[in-house]
Task: structure prediction
Amino acid sequence: MWTRTETAALISLVLAPLLMAAVASVLGRRAPVLTARLGAVTAGSGFLLAAALGLAAARGDVASAGAGVFALAADRLAVALFMLIFGVSTVTQTFAIRYLAGDPRAGWFTGGASLLTAASAVLVSASTLVGIAAGWTVAGIALCLLLGTYRQHPSARDGVRRAAVAFLIGDAALWLAVALISISSGSVALAELPTTQFQGPEAVVAAVLVVVAALSRSAQIPFHRWLPATLAAPTPVSALLHAGVVNAGGILLVRLSPLPSPVVATGLIVTAGAATMAYGAAIMLVKPDIKGALAYSTMAQMGFMILTCGLGLWAATVFHLFAHGFYKATLFLSSGSAIARIRRHAALPAAPRPTGHRRGLCAAAAMTLPAVALYTAIHLVPAWTHHAAQHALLLFAWVTGAVATWGWLQRRPNITGALYAAALLLPSAAVYIAIVNAVSAFLDPALPTATVPVSAVWPIIGAAAILLAALAGLRLSPAATALHRAVYTHALSAGTINPVTPGAHR
Result:
């Protein structure tokens, strides 16, 4: 059941940012500061409305609005994604008030960000394939407009060109899939797809086309080159892109999960996700600039997200969308502060680093302590459900804990430092497990059942852990210096994007 208040809130989540985009196009140049503040207030109000709809969804209410191909619905998944979209939009637009103060393109950013917010809201709440595709396409157009904020720079134009080509391919694939599904099944409503007899070669082709669309928007191999080429955009645009737009591939696969998933499509998702995760992580480690490293970090994170989609671990996908979205927005918006901090530290005497056996002990402690903390937290938190999605997220938590512990032990390479790390890791792991359980329980009614058993997830986690340990050993071992240098050189070369201008020869 739903009420008029909830329906009005749902309509406002789409129309308010769309209206703000129109206002920015008129007032942007005349009153840029007022326009920027109105944009931030609109996004913040949308976040509060999304939270209110979340409370209604927790009671079992589903707000609905519109009709026909433009019908909208706000179930638990939609309201969770609303909070991500409007939360990131609020943070970035608030940051841009000062960042773009005095910039003649400030109004352009507010209009593009508001249009992107409205399109993303349609994407996550549309009840039909046509509505999803419409939100998908408009979001891509809005991003290209934002990437062209400083279009007078050749690097900015190159980033727009690369992104537009990738988006054009993905959008064409998605609209072809929508046309094929509607013609073959006679329906475009998501709720009716499981009951239609949509099978055979048409289902295979449609699934592959949807996968192509998702891979192109999330910068997965072979569409991975456009994302690092967009770093000429201003920092708030980069935050919106890396914290929001690239997540659209995972959102699309989650929303269209009722479609048949043939083996060829699943294999394509898993292969592209795993390959991009390894590729992005390798190049991230060698990039000398902060924004470049963050770009390839996003690529690797999206690879993990796409991989969980291929394995049918939908709860892990959505949880990762949230964690990566807010985390990466924070990193991009604080990149200037990070550069200033590095410069300050460079002027100070370097602290002694552990060497020899002590370095090996620190590496072993960095890998062991987070694993012990997670294992203990699983048994301390009574609500642990042993779903495959939760187990997949343990790998991510372990890697994060290992990196943080290694950085801490580099400064305090002694038993006291290890004890401090263990004392902090255990409560952090318990809080992480509790949050994962709470989010999974909230989303469970709106997500399809995981298609991969827990017994099949652990071999994948084990293989990934072995690979990461091998990379760490390669990086730390003095005996592998030559191999390390070769891998470093090839990764650095692969991560270099040369701008292409019309008429130039590569």
About this structure: The chain is about 75% helix and 0% strand. The first helix runs from residue 4 to 27.
